[in-house]
Amino acid sequence: MQDPNGAWKLLPAAGLIVILWSTLRGIQNWLRGFLMVRRLPGPAAHPIFGNAKEFLSKHKFFEYAGQWRDQFRNFHTTSIFFHPVIIVQSPDAVQAILSRKFKHAEKGFIYKGLQPLLGEGLITSKDEKWHSHRKLITPTFHFNILESFLEVFVSRTRDFMVDLQEAVVTANGGFIDVSPYTRRLTLAFICETAMGEPSSGKKNKQAEIVAAMHKLEEIGIYRMVRPWLLSELLFQFTQKGKEQEKYKRILHDFTDEVIKERRETLAQLGKISSDETEDFKEKAIFMDLLINSSQDGKVLTVQDIREEVNTFMFAGQHTTQLAINFCLYLLGRHPSIQEKAFEELENIFGDSERDPTMEDIKKMRYLGNCIKDALRLYPSVPVIARRLTEDEEIDGHTLPKGADVLILPYVLHRDPQQFPNPEQFGPDNFLPEKRKNRHPFAYIPFSAGPRNCIGQKFATVAEKTVISAILRQYTVKTKEGPLIVVPSTVLVPKSGIRLSFIPRIRRRTDLQQSNLNIKTTPVVEDTYF
């Protein structure tokens, strides 16, 4: 008679066979990819550490990357320890990786360290989840919604200008570090457009949430350069892993609480007359738009909404602040360009001190080109990563499945074949006659292709609002020479940015007395971005 427990006794052996087979298959795939990558062009590398030294060289990394571009042009291979990393440098190769035709790629390893912070929002999600969420979220950045967001930008910029005026008076003509002021401002933009104007009790809590986000970001960066810590199974037992869980809980609890409150508010508003809700609905809030989307077919869960709100806050705050800072720095270094931008604002506003409308924002074309070229020289996001899920042919070479592909906008944007005098700040780079002959993937500050940044117009409207307010009241001067920048999750100046703000004598400085004047104006796509 057969032993009824015989099959169960075979389970451990069967499990061991599966584990062994999976391990051998993984080694086989890795070895195949490693040997394929070895045949690709690339710089000399240490036999064990690969090019880890160059990747960990902080601000010098871009020097190495620029030399590699000049030497290998389209793309080349590098490695971190034994992990192959392919760096793509030419617009043609970038287009091949980011275009709609390139289906065999997902987000790369550098995003894995951010998953505890972002979950599976638009930055980190893939496949069907990304497609469905992108389709749902895209309408939340419609031009009519941006007009509602403009009211927040104008109101908070007015507060910012009061704080800046106090700092300027205190500095008495000296230089000040603008970063703390723009950080608070863009944080107010993001929090209020994402979750609504906070109650007095929630303002202190928001500061705690932002601190938690920054801690999670720091931990994510720590893990990115230590690939052995990217496994959650192992990392959770480390001290950093315990810190990560603590800050993740703080962030998730707060966001879940706000989602619950907003759902209750929206449900209550649905029970009263439309006249009573008109004022409420005029102020679009990103979270409300997601909640309303989720009510149609129950597509977005609480976790989905939380992940997208956290992604919106993380992606929007740093990048918008840095774009403002870098543009002010460059305008301060180039007085003639700054004066031309100011003259454009004079033509729009005259002697009026009114707040900008969306129509005014559209007319700021030269200032828009200043922002664009600032993002060319100092793209807020310095690295875009993809991981190949299948072998791919590019430029006559086979890139192996499993390889990570890096695109470096900081280097790509300095291609002399696309931008003559690439190190020179030049808003005229974006005149129509110059843009028409340029490769469409030569300039990608917001990435490109189907996974481009969904909030790029949001960022542009915010940046124009702030910079125009500053230029209408002050002449900006820069203390620093050429900036030294360090790649991280965003591009950061090594030593901060110190600016001097000289009041324009003919302009009144008390912006608090101006009246908010937001007019409903149809916005024509691409006229201001």
Automatic annotation (TrEMBL):
<keyword id="KW-0503">Monooxygenase</keyword>
<protein>
    <recommendedName>
        <fullName>Cytochrome P450</fullName>
    </recommendedName>
</protein>
<keyword id="KW-0472">Membrane</keyword>
<dbReference type="InterPro" id="IPR001128">
    <property type="entry name" value="Cyt_P450"/>
</dbReference>
<keyword id="KW-0479">Metal-binding</keyword>
<feature type="binding site" description="axial binding residue">
    <location>
        <position position="453"/>
    </location>
    <ligand>
        <name>heme</name>
    </ligand>
</feature>
<dbReference type="Pfam" id="PF00067">
    <property type="entry name" value="p450"/>
</dbReference>
<dbReference type="GO" id="GO:0004497">
    <property type="term" value="F:monooxygenase activity"/>
</dbReference>
<dbReference type="InterPro" id="IPR002401">
    <property type="entry name" value="Cyt_P450_E_grp-I"/>
</dbReference>
<dbReference type="GO" id="GO:0016705">
    <property type="term" value="F:oxidoreductase activity, acting on paired donors, with incorporation or reduction of molecular oxygen"/>
</dbReference>
<dbReference type="InterPro" id="IPR050196">
    <property type="entry name" value="Cytochrome_P450_Monoox"/>
</dbReference>
<keyword id="KW-0492">Microsome</keyword>
<dbReference type="InterPro" id="IPR036396">
    <property type="entry name" value="Cyt_P450_sf"/>
</dbReference>
<dbReference type="GO" id="GO:0020037">
    <property type="term" value="F:heme binding"/>
</dbReference>
<comment type="similarity">
    <text>Belongs to the cytochrome P450 family.</text>
</comment>
<keyword id="KW-0349">Heme</keyword>
<dbReference type="GO" id="GO:0005789">
    <property type="term" value="C:endoplasmic reticulum membrane"/>
</dbReference>
<keyword id="KW-0256">Endoplasmic reticulum</keyword>
<dbReference type="InterPro" id="IPR017972">
    <property type="entry name" value="Cyt_P450_CS"/>
</dbReference>
<dbReference type="GO" id="GO:0005506">
    <property type="term" value="F:iron ion binding"/>
</dbReference>
<keyword id="KW-0560">Oxidoreductase</keyword>
<keyword id="KW-0408">Iron</keyword>
